[in-house]
Amino acid sequence: MEHAAGRTPAAKRGPGGVITIALVLGAAVGACKPEDAAQTSREEPRCVEILPGASPLRRMTRFEYNNTIRDLLGDDSAPADAFVIEEEALGFNNQAAALGVTQLLAEQLMKASEGIAERAVRDLERLFEGCEPAVQGADVCAAELIERLGKRAFRRPLTPAEVERFARLFAWGNDEHDLSTGVSVVIQAMLQSPHFLYRVEHGMPDPDARGVAPLSDHEIASRLSYLLWSSMPDDALFAAADAGELHTAEQIAAQARRLLEDPRARAAVANFHAQWLGLSHIDALNKDPAVYPRFREGLGSLLRAETEAFLDHVVFEDDAGDVATLLSAPYSLMNAELRAFYGLEAAGGTGAAGAFEVVPLDPSQRAGVLTHASLLSVHAKPDQSSPIHRGKFVRERLLCQTLPPPPADVDIQPPEVRPGVPTRRQFEQHAADPNCAGCHRLMDPIGFGFEHYDGIGLYREVDQGVPVDASGEIRGSRETDGHFDGAVELAHKLAQSDEVRSCVATQWFRFGYGRAEQAEDECSMAQIQEAFAESGYNIKELLVALTQTDAFRYRRAATEGREGREGREGSAP
Questions:
Q1: Per the database record, which ranges form the DUF1588 domain (predicted)?
Q2: Cβ atoms 149, 187 nearer than 8 A
Q3: pLDDT tens digits for 423-440?
Q4: Count of CB atoms within 10 A of residue 209's CB?
Q5: Measured distance CA(332)–CA(437) in Å, rounded
Q6: How far apart are CA 195 and CA 270, in angstroms?
């Protein structure tokens, strides 16, 4: 047992200084006082004990359900698209605390299992994998199917009691109806089990670590696959778990690197980016055609495709693959239609018109993902840009500071567009209103830096006939404070910020672990930050680092009371 594996008494520091609880856990701005946001603790993390933090039951999201059904049964019909949309917490839809089961969702899960089973039994020969009921007997073939499919559906070998229960269910369906019905009801029961819908983890007894349990190899395999693929383990990962080869940090890291080379990792990383950056809301964009005649139906999907292609290239193709490139790259990936939207010259060469290619951009106008029309459009209003939303995005998603909602008696409607009055001047009223000034002085000065981009992300030199003033300022951060002129300068400032790098790691922790960070996670976070820094802030190496922590490899030992509560919380139809 590796009690001290991967643990350091104090993480290495970057130019920004010590890693503190406030830094690794993110800051809540509270009452929007900059001096509060800048406060930090000077205590060093003490990584003596194994402190895994919470291990809540995690129900599959719709994205994970679709992927798992595809990999389990070859069904790519995306049945979870019909499920109710998940509640979001911390900006993500996979947070365990928000993933309950309503009566409506329970019914949808039941109906989905029926449809999936019906499609699966149309090819019994493939399901039985060479076992012929007419030769070996229906019960024999069913027993083999139950063992094999159940292990993959539950991400662990079935218990004898579970095997017996599914065998009785098959026998009833087969005897009362036919072979297909027997197999169908088994599949339905598996897909409605909490052991399929949830990642149920008990850990293994460990007499040397009081109150802490190392996860089993199969539980580690499941954590790996859902972190990096948003789906179930593949055969190689199951084989490693069966052989007890997911016990050490090195074994887990080797599997993590293998999984990152699979195309499924790209889809999972894209899902994180879509939620982190707000791209998941782009399909609902609504713009005033009188103000933005170049906006059309379907443009949001095209803009999202650009950002997804760019992020995929940065993480998986770019030699650096780091946070700085993500935030300040002087290029994007576009096809002919996107070039036309941005007003760029058509590409030379013989590439297909719809193909996405690396396109160098004017470095005085564009830098990295922050100047993509997708983000700028999402964080804007139907008829104007929005310094508030753009500043809030930087504050919460890149600096990990949470702003409180506005007071109930404050009018949150944006000012109306007035001819001859630029957006900046209209929003500067917040600085004079005492009910608004506290929070808006943290958001608006950042958002003003994006004023060279209109409500659909196109570059402009003038707004309402007035030259754009894109000067801005960051206030109340820990070490990123200061003036800047325009989003390009802001992007380069953020790209070199230790505070931003720390926040990126924190956002991945929240998304990857499905929960908020806690005080017990201090050492795990310090370990992640150290590995991230040593890699040059490489995103893929950050994902590997997430698999090496106490929080990933262990769980609190379940007491009898807690185990009972978790069982009830994890119950499903």
A1: 366-462
A2: yes
A3: 898 887 766 677 677 788
A4: 16
A5: 36
A6: 27
368 and 473, same structural domain? no
Chain centre to alpha carbon of residue 242: 29
pLDDT at 183 over 80: yes
Distance CA(259)–CA(308), nearest Å, equals 20
Query: In whole angstroms, what is the distance from residue 33 CA to residue 11 CA?
Result: 29
- pLDDT, tens only, 233-257: 999 999 999 999 999 999 999 999 9
Burial class (CB in 10 A: 0-12, 13-18, 19+), 420: exposed
Statement to judge: residues 423 and 546 lie in one domain: no
Considering the domain architecture, whether residues 190 and 250 belong to the same structural domain is answered as: no
- Structure tokens of 36? 């509060």
Arithmetic mean of pLDDT, 184-205: 95
Coil, strand or helix at 41: coil
Of 164, 163, 158, 80, which Cα lies nearest the Cα of 116?
Answer: 80
| pLDDT tens-digit series, residues 28-64 | 455 565 444 444 343 455 577 888 989 999 999 999 9
Helix and strand numbers (H, E) in the chain are 27, 12
Sign of the alpha-carbon dihedral angle for 94, 109, 279, 253: positive
Does 179 lie in the same domain as 77?
Answer: yes
Range list of β-strands (E), 457-550: 462-463, 466-467, 471-474, 482-485
Residue 367 in any domain: the answer is yes
* 511-528 CB burial, b ≥16 within 10 A, e <16: bbbbbbbeebbbbbbbbb
Q: CB atoms < 10 A from the CB of 540, how many?
A: 19
Of 269, 271, 249, nearest to 261 by C-alpha is 269
Contact 372, 380 (CB under 8 A): no
**How many domains does one find in the chain?**
4
Q: How far apart are CA 570 and CA 573, in angstroms?
A: 10
Q: What's the CA gap between 380 and 454, in Å, rounded?
A: 8
For residues 65-80, one letter each, b for 16 or more C-beta atoms within 10 angstroms of the residue's C-beta and e for the rest, the string is bbbbbbbbbebeeebb
Task: Give the global pTM.
Answer: 0.89
pLDDT digits (tens, 9 = 90+) for 250-293: 999 999 999 999 999 999 999 999 999 999 989 889 999 999 99
**What is the domain extent for residue 540?**
202-261+535-573
Which whole-number Å values give the CA distances from 258 to 59, 228, 263, 268, 503, in the listed order? 25, 10, 11, 14, 26
Contacts of 425 (CB under 8 A, 6+ apart): 466
